């Protein structure tokens, strides 16, 4: 087997949630332009979603070089002409790579004037990251998204301070044991952070395994 294919990582939840996520994205994404995926993880969502969201372009990203290797390996296994190579991007950075005058080296053919970033997708990140990652994500979306642009979040949330299911409470506790800075966020708190960056909550969708899709608009 090709060594790069050996680098593919697997997230079991992807098989369960990718179709419902696609269904929501088809409803909420602008019809054209570029989608930036922040924290692409294994890359499984990127290779599944990008070809099904054509003609939109899709840029995966992750701060972890191991994850970027997995994303690239998945791309080699499941190529799509609208899916770009992964870039290094940490949501907490004050300036993201896609904001630079010179594009990151893996994206030599990307033209943001022709295909501007009109949406940011973030799946299962803000609960497995410090709060600063959520704050950075909202700040980046506020800087980058044009008027009418979409920020899509997927994951577990508390609502009005309460977990949506006992399994979410157990999951939250397990996260905090791993890292006290992690944990299931309260949707009201996330909405407040978004509003501070001029992002408005548009809609939430109930998703598998007591998760939510949360749609913000610039």
Strands, total number: 9
Q: Return the structural class.
A: alpha/beta
Show unreliable segments.
none
User: What would the average pLDDT be, to the nearest integer?
Assistant: 93
User: What is the CA-CA span between the terminal residues?
Assistant: 45 Å
Helix content: 25-40%
Question: How are helices and strands ordered from N to C?
Answer: HHEHEHEHEEEHEHEE
Gyration radius (Cα, Å) is 16 Å
Order of strands across the widest beta sheet? 2-1-3-4-9-8
The coarse overall form would be globular
The largest β sheet comes out as: 6 strands, mixed
Strand content: 15-25%
SS summary, helix count? 7
Give a written overview of the molecule.
- By secondary structure, the chain is of the alpha/beta class.
- Helix content is 37%, strand content 20%.
- It has helices spanning 3-6, 12-28, 44-52, 65-77, 131-144, 166-178, 187-196, and strands spanning 34-37, 57-60, 117-123, 150-155, 157-159, 162-163, 185-186, 200-207, 211-217.
- Strands 2-1-3-4-9-8 form a 6-stranded mixed β-sheet, with helices on both faces. It has a 3-stranded mixed β-sheet with strand order 6-5-7.
- The longest helix is centred in the first third of the chain and has 17 residues, at 12-28.
- The radius of gyration is 16 Å and the shape is globular.
- It starts with a helix and ends with a strand.
């Amino acid at each position: 087997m090709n060594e790069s294919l050996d680098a593919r990582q697997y997230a079991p939840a992807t098989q369960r949630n990718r179709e419902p996520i696609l269904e929501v994205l088809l409803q909420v994404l602008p019809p054209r332009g570029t989608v930036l995926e922040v924290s692409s993880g294994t890359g499984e969502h990127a290779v599944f979603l990008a070809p099904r969201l054509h003609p939109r372009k899709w840029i995966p990203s992750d701060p972890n070089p191991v994850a970027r290797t997995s994303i690239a390996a998945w791309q080699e296994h499941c190529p799509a002409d609208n899916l770009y190579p992964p870039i290094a991007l940490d949501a907490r950075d004050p300036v993201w790579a896609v904001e630079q005058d010179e594009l990151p080296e893996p994206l030599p053919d990307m033209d943001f004037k022709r295909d501007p970033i009109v949406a940011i997708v973030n799946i299962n990140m803000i609960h497995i990251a410090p709060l600063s990652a959520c704050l950075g994500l909202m700040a980046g979306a506020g800087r980058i998204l044009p008027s009418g642009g979409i920020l899509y979040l997927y994951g577990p949330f508390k609502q009005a301070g309460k977990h949506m299911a006992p399994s979410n409470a157990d999951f939250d506790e397990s996260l905090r044991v791993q890292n006290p800075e992690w944990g299931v966020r309260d949707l009201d708190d996330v909405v407040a952070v978004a509003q501070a960056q001029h992002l408005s909550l548009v809609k939430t969708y109930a998703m598998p395994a007591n998760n939510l899709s949360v749609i913000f608009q610039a």
